[in-house]
């Protein structure tokens, strides 16, 4: 009789251990699923942020290109003036040598 009671106790303890183990495994699976959802959410958030930074980078690169073209344009103007003075010996005339020509006004312009 004692032996059957001991066997029943052992069986109930084994059942209890199995239930605890199943519960722990179920909790771990649930926590794992929650973490996967959280990681996917973070990935999408980070990807959206990366996309906005890449768009901003592209906009800044386009603006940089426009600024380089503008700089080259202004540099060319200064270079043309320098070459005109040094190579062609051109100069701005003084005021006494400057003549202003006015066109006669017509009846349509009045």
Structure description:
The protein has one helix at about 1-85. The protein has about 110 residues and is mainly α. The chain contains 1 helix and no strands. The protein has one domain (about 1-90). It is rod-shaped, with a radius of gyration of 44 Å. The model has no long low-confidence stretch (mean pLDDT about 90).
Taking all residues together, what is the mean pLDDT? 89
Helix content: over 70%
Largest sheet: none
- Count of helix runs: 1
Number of strands: 0
Q: Beta fraction of the residues? A: under 5%
Distance between the termini: 132 Å
Shape: rod-shaped
Organism: Acinetobacter towneri
Family: Belongs to the FtsL family.
Pfam family, one: FtsL
Subcellular location: Cell inner membrane; Cell membrane
What's the structural blueprint in terms of helices and strands?
Blueprint: H1 2-86
Question: Which features characterize this protein?
Answer:
110 residues, cell membrane, transmembrane helix
Briefly summarize what is shown.
The protein is mostly helical and 110 residues long. The chain has one helix at residues 2-86.
């Amino acid at each position: 009789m004692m032996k059957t009671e001991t066997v029943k106790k052992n069986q109930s303890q084994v059942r209890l251990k199995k239930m605890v183990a199943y519960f722990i495994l179920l909790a771990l699976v649930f926590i794992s699923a929650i973490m996967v959802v959280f990681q996917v959410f973070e990935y999408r958030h980070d990807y959206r942020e990366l996309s906005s930074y890449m768009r901003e980078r592209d906009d800044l690169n386009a603006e940089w290109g426009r600024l380089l073209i503008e700089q080259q344009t202004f540099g060319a103007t200064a270079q043309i003036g320098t070459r005109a003075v040094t190579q062609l010996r051109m100069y701005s005339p003084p005021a006494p040598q400057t003549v202003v020509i006015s066109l006669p006004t017509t009846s349509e312009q009045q």
